Amino acid sequence: MRSALLAVKGVTRATVSFEDHEAVVTYNPHEATVEALIVAVERAEGLAPYTATIKGPAPQGSAR
């Protein structure tokens, strides 16, 4: 999951907690979009099918 998020152009940091069902991502909003991050999560290879949503309002440059 982390590598899938880091593969999105503009992502500078990603931490993933499967236990908490959460990923925290820092990205450049001029290069990456929330939609691209969601697609990366949903298409992550080698993992069970996951869905992604934004948890609360995303501050500019990060998504949770």
Assign the CATH architecture: 2-Layer Sandwich
Radius of gyration: 11 Å
Instruction: Count every helix, treating DSSP H or I runs of 4 or more residues as helices.
Output: 2
Side by side, the strands of the main sheet go: 1-2-3
- The ordered string of helix (H) and strand (E) elements is HEEHE
Q: Under CATH, the topology is which?
A: Alpha-Beta Plaits
Give the termini distance in whole angstroms. Answer: 14 Å
Helix/strand/pairing category = alpha+beta
Question: Which features characterize this protein?
Answer:
64 residues, Alpha-Beta Plaits, 3-stranded antiparallel β-sheet, 3 strands, 23% strand
Can you lay out the helices and strands and say which pair or pack?
Blueprint: H1 2-6, E1 11-17, E2 22-27, H2 34-42, E3 62-63
Antiparallel strand pairs: 1-2, 2-3
General description of the model:
By secondary structure, this protein is an alpha+beta fold. It has one domain (2-63): Alpha-Beta Plaits. It contains 2 helices and 3 strands. A 3-stranded antiparallel beta sheet has the order 1-2-3. A hairpin with a 4-residue loop joins strand 1 and strand 2. The chain starts with a helix and ends with a strand.
